[in-house]
Design a protein that fits this description.
- The chain has 312 residues and is an alpha+beta fold.
- The chain folds into three domains: 90 residues, Pseudouridine synthase (2-Layer Sandwich); 133 residues, Pseudouridine synthase (2-Layer Sandwich); 68 residues, Roll (Archaeosine Trna-guanine Transglycosylase, Chain: A, domain 4), CATH 2.30.130.60.
- Strands 1, 2, 3, 4, 7, 10, 11, 12, 13 and 14 form a ten-stranded mixed β-sheet that branches. A five-stranded mixed β-sheet has the order 15-17-18-19-16. Strands 5-6 form a two-stranded antiparallel sheet.
- About 4% of the residues have low confidence.
């Protein structure tokens, strides 16, 4: 028999303001321990150097992580000009230096090339797999790596401040898979100098924002007696970017038992398909019963089929 998972069946999202120096995995472990939750995961890794919004999924919310991570992310970051590091941030060793320092006008002129669809080579120290092994593990083993460029979406990039000649502060809104460390490195190259990330803070991740975030110290200070529900967001929060579809009680039972549900082609169902996908591909929806999520499901050709059933 499978071993029973220890901990409480807590379901929902907790938005952590991750402190600097802590890995995302350790942050999840700390939250899970504090809440005595049976299951937890995070919605998008933050580097140890970074702070800010780290959405942590608990219980059935872990089934929605993949959808929550699809949303845009907002970052505020500081670039240090004149040096590159092997990690593309201050965590690594200096690999090259330059005396060139860009002006504000030069920076503004360079930014349009980094908006929209941008080809970006991920940092060598990243979690991307190369021949089945994480790139960072190969880099730590001093293996020579050449990572392929990927197209990422940068919806917005602005110069926010220039505290001194050696640093500039930016805000970026970007899509899934964008590396801010690569952006800093590439900005430096475009400006005829070198650059790496000196500070990084995530302000928002999909539907989760800085205003919702609580610190690990605050969570710890509450002790085990504080009801977790006071700090949790509903499971469906991670599904805000996909349309909702109302079910009847009978349809919900069918869906929970893995059965396809025949849906009448009402006008609202047509609108769902139009918003989310083509008729051939099928729309991904959050199937709801009386305001509670039943499943992440696909609606195509008049049938609804569960992708992930939510046991709430």
């Amino acid at each position: 028999m499978p071993r029973k998972r220890k901990g409480l069946p807590i379901h929902g999202w907790l938005v952590l303001d991750k402190p600097k120096g802590l890995t995302s995995a350790k942050a999840v472990a700390a939250v899970r321990k504090q809440l005595d939750a049976a299951k937890a995961g995070h919605g998008g890794t933050l580097d140890p150097l970074a702070t800010g919004v780290l959405p942590i999924a608990l219980g059935e919310a872990t089934k929605t992580v993949g959808y929550a991570m699809e949303g845009p992310k907002t970052y505020r970051f500081q670039v240090r000009w004149g040096e590159t590091r092997d990690t593309d941030d201050l965590e690594g060793a200096v690999t090259a230096e330059s005396p060139v320092r860009p002006t504000g006008a030069q920076i503004e002129a360079a930014l349009p090339a980094f908006r929209g669809a941008v080809a970006q080579v991920p940092p060598v120290y990243s979690a991307i797999k190369v021949a089945g092994k994480r790139a960072y593990a190969r880099a730590r083993a001093a293996e020579s790596l050449t990572l392929a460029a990927r197209t990422v979406q940068i919806h917005g990039l602005t110069l926010a401040a220039m505290p001194d000649a050696d640093h500039a502060v930016f805000e970026a809104v970007c899509g899934k898979g964008t590396y801010i460390r690569s952006l800093a490195r590439d900005l430096g190259a475009a400006l005829g100098t070198l650059g790496c990330v000196a500070e990084l803070r995530r302000l928002a991740s999909g539907p989760f924002t800085e205003k919702q975030a609580i610190s690990l110290d605050y969570l710890t200070s509450l002790g085990h007696d504080a009801p977790a529900t006071e700090h949790l967001l509903p499971v469906e929060t991670g599904l805000d970017d996909i349309p909702a579809l109302a079910l009847t009680e009978q349809q919900a039972v069918q869906l929970r038992h893995g059965q396809a549900v025949q849906m009448l082609l009402r006008e609202d169902h047509r609108q769902v398909r139009t918003r989310a996908a083509t008729e051939e591909e099928g729309a991904v929806v959050c199937a709801m019963l009386a305001g509670r999520p039943v499943a992440v499901a696909r609606l195509a050709k008049g049938q609804l089929r569960a992708l992930r059933v939510l046991n709430l």
